[in-house]
Each structure stands twice: as structure tokens, then as C-alpha cells.
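Check out one such.
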Amino acid sequence: MTKKDIILKVADETGLKQTDVKQVVQKTFDYMVEALVRGEKIELRNFGVFKIKERKSRTGRNPRTGQVVPVPPRKVVIFKPGLEMKHQVK
């Protein structure tokens, strides 16, 4: 499912204009990204939790040359599904 699919489905079920729904959906995603950039946790009840986790630095290997390459630490987004989602996705 894409963002466009979500917009079309919400617009169809609510009777709102697609352009209005698109603005709301995009703003929602924008605010979620901004919160994650600030290091905040996003908790959506019955859906799940998004949070930032920092991976430690490590040594990797270039698969072509076999050369050892240092991999710097970096931040990644982690998603943990909520109980409601877990029960429905079984």
C-alpha cells in the first residue's frame, strides 16, 4: 500500500477532497519525521512505537576486495508493533 492508496481510501470513506486528505497525511508524516530527528519517541496506541536507536561503530569488509573498512556509528529508526496490530497480523 502506498501513500496515494491511503489518501484515496480515506477520501473515499470520509467524503473529503483528496487534496485535503493529502495535506493532512503529508503533514502527519512530516511531524513524525521531525519528532524522530529531535530524538523523540512516537507512540501510536494500538498501532506501534517508532524510536531512534544508535548502532555502534564496527569493522566491515568490502565484498569485492576483502579489504577491512571501518563503519561509523549511525542512527536508525526502529518500529515495534502494538498489541492490537500483533493480534490482527497473525
